[in-house]
Amino acid sequence: MKLNKFLLAIVAVLGLTYCTSDFVDINKNPNAILGDQISAKYFITRTQVDLFAPNRYPYWRAQLIHADRYAGMFCFGFSGSWWSDGLGYTYSAGYTDAAWDYYEGYNSTINTFLQLTQPGGDLENPLTYATALIMKSMYYQKFTDTFGEVPYSESGNLDILQPKFDTQAEIYQGIINDLDEAMSLIGDATKTGDGQLDLGSNDLFYNGDLQKWKKLANTLKLKVALRAKGASGASFVDQAINEALSAPLLSDESDNALLPKDNVISQWNSSCYGDVWYNFGTGSDWTVSQPLIDLLQKNGDPRLSKYAQPAAGGDTLTIPHPDSDDDAMYQKRKDFILSALDDAGATYTEWTNGNGETVISLEKDKYYIGQPVRLNGFTYDYALYQFFSTPAQYIIQKKNDGKPIAPEIVLTTAESYFMQAQAALDGYGSGDANTLYREGLTQAMLVWGVDQTDIDTFLANSPMANLTGTGDMEKVAEQRWLANYTEGFEAWAVVRKLGYPASLAAGVDDPDIFAMGDLNGAYPQRMRYGSSPYSTNNDNLQAAIGRQGADVQATKLWWAK
Question: What pTM did the predictor assign?
Fold first, then answer.
């Protein structure tokens, strides 16, 4: 096969950026690439990494600042933080553009992989093309669930410089069609080929195992069909759900789709939480939210220590009295913050110093305490950093330390079972909702390394361990939310669609305490579009806004209306 210069250039860049064990020799001398050495396996790694672990700029501004906090899992706004926890709830072009440009920019990555492997492509291979279709489906599900209508059907067509925005109904139907095609192409195949044709270790999800890719595709199909359920014009839902339930889904621990973190690669090629945590000092740290800590702690969930660290505490933690607050406001805000300690069951000593300020003595590294979400800038001084839990070290581990870093969650077996339980509660399939739910709990804990003994204890004793006929959908939704810890985009979508945890979905209502933002306290339903489509594709963008609703965070997406 004779490859064009464009392809050779791309391969050379990939070799310099994403060196894998199979690519070492080529990476040493890109000019020595021979036609029979070129394989699609050298493209799949970047396709996976760029979507789930991009460089630090979008990882920080899109994932951490927006998705993880809209999901209600991480908080800023403590004393010493660079930001109020209201950041993201009031529109900022710079922060929003980082998210839009990240998703829009990925389009060229996935289209390169598709065009190379599709029929007639330079690296034509129907089995590798199937994995490209599945990656495309994961991309558009995340993209459309973040912004709503986006360019889809005309995107990637080099003859169309201003692609139309497709409705979410069209995008969802297209995703299901692509997933069906991918599963059909895979059939009974187990790998994409022999030798250079085998994705092998370059496939960071499944080491080239196509039957696991097929399960991933079918589980994603179930996800998008359940999300579309009840939406206007979603005529494909019942058939898609029933088809998904009748075919293999992610079913055991080895089926988890996780993206391992590279301990060496530059943060400007692929980032992790530690690249933000350690680069800026305490000012850019973040804490774990009260809804998450509460849900784990009050139900005896053994993931608590896997998700978070105890609050640092201290012997003399002074809550300063801002000059701007009168005594009544000082009392209100101070009491609100201390109520989070009370809610977590923390025991502390409180007294007043000579300046009339409250001083707290809280035992060090003992209590798991979640920070209330969306605190405003006025509450900043009261929310001492030492009061609240921070993420577990495994999550914020820095690179080049010789220690493991938590992988990126793509789609897990736990969520597969929770979605099957959700479908059963909605009357689909023949599975028992409680059995499926309990298996979901087991799988969700195994992902985080919980011992089987602790899992068994939880299943035997926790009020969250069984569906009882009352509040069952709430339990399923909350467990789907918890299972997506550190995958904020999906956790946020769960809250928007299912309405749980209810404390998050309800938003906030006290401007003395909370950042009301552009939403006036309501829960964010989408991100605003970036600046680029306004300048490069405005006519099509305006048509989308006309169908979807105003370009504001409060506009509900098609599947959430």
Answer: 0.94
